[in-house]
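Supplementary Methods. Inverse-folding protocol.

Structures were first reduced to a C-alpha cell string of length 73. This string, shown here, constituted the complete conditioning input.
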C-alpha cells in the first residue's frame, strides 16, 4: 500500500467519524480569582461542532486519493 492510499483511507475514516460524531467536547480548568494563598477555580465544558462540509470534503478527498493512489504509472 503506498502513501496516497494510506492517507486516503485515513481521510475516509476521519470524515465518517466527523459526520457520525458531529463534534467533540472537552473540559477547561481556569482560575477565576487568586487572592494571596486562596485560589478559586472553575471548570467549563467547551464544545466544538464540526461542520458537515468538513466531513463530506474529507470523504471526497479520501476517495479521490484512493483512486489516484491505486493507479500504476
Amino acid at each position: 500500500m503506498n502513501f496516497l492510499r494510506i492517507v486516503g483511507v485515513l481521510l475516509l475514516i476521519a470524515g465518517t467519524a466527523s459526520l457520525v460524531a458531529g463534534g467533540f467536547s472537552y473540559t477547561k480548568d481556569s482560575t477565576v480569582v487568586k487572592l494571596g494563598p486562596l485560589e478559586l477555580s472553575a471548570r467549563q465544558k467547551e464544545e466544538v461542532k464540526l461542520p458537515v462540509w468538513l466531513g463530506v470534503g474529507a470523504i471526497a478527498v479520501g476517495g479521490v486519493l484512493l483512486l489516484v493512489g491505486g493507479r500504476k504509472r
